[in-house]
């Protein structure tokens, strides 16, 4: 399996040294503000979020909530649908996989013709998680962790800040190495087959299960691999996050991978003099 999920990194988990949480407090001597840092698993439905009472309390008590992008629901769909249609994918994919892709994409808010090769692969991977890994229940009204928190912040009049626009976020997705049809096609076939044949769940759903149990290892002493999607974006976000946690009680929610390693937000904030400590028992 050459490619990883585009908006998350599937890491080897060391359960012995795992920090059993996805939520961290951020404090600094001389600064009265208490902020929170949450590592999200994007494709997780609202029923899981509702079970994390400590997380929702932290959000509601904050003055500002900071996300990767605050417009990733209908706003992102509107942005993508504003593009001109491109039916190149019909020339690039074989008939068998085109037919199945047509079946699973019938209810997508954005048609295939508005997606790049990398964006299509990401959407197929997200569909796999939803349908094979149990991250989203049939009763869930919101399918993504981040969107549900954004909705909750709005309902509780918490100020919102997005670290990226839709344009910038999609540019990162499409900047990755080997992102054209020639390189992506085999992976599209593989993931479509995985969905159709309900296969490899023990491999691809492992991270989701570990995340739900919060048995995560953040590998804080490990060097990071240079990555447009992870390390580069985290470095750009850090000054914005620091500015806000100095001024306000802030709630920061970004993908779990952005908290890991020496280049991750936990390590970088600690280097800047902040006390970043795990919060346990999130269901209470």
Compact overview of the structure:
The chain is of the alpha/beta class. The protein has helices spanning 46-50, 53-61, 74-81, 88-92, 95-104, 117-132, 145-155, 166-175, 181-196, 201-204, 206-213, 228-247, 265-271; strands at 23-28, 31-40, 64-67, 159-162, 250-255, 275-279.
Give a quick set of tags describing it.
284 residues, globular, alpha/beta
Structure report:
This protein has helices at 46-50, 53-61, 74-81, 88-92, 95-104, 117-132, 145-155, 166-175, 181-196, 201-204, 206-213, 228-247, 265-271, and strands at residues 23-28, 31-40, 64-67, 159-162, 250-255, 275-279. It has 284 residues and is of the alpha/beta class. It has one domain (15-279). A six-stranded mixed sheet has the order 4-3-5-2-1-6, with helices on both faces. Helix 6 packs parallel to helix 9. It starts with 22 loop residues before the first strand and ends in a 5-residue tail after the last strand. The model is unreliable at 1-17 (pLDDT under 50).
Instruction: Specify Rg, calculated over alpha carbons.
Output: 19 Å
Number of strands: 6
Distance between the termini: 39 Å
* Helix/strand structural class: alpha/beta
- Unreliable stretches: 1-17
Which sheet architecture does the biggest sheet show?
6 strands, mixed
How many individual helices?
A: 13
State the share of residues found in helices, binned by percent.
40-55%
Strand content: 5-15%
Helix and strand element order: EEHHEHHHHHEHHHHHEHE
Tell me the strand order in the biggest sheet: 4-3-5-2-1-6
What assembly state would you assign to the polypeptide chains in this entry? single chain
Give the overall silhouette.
globular
Mean pLDDT: 91
Number of folding domains? 1
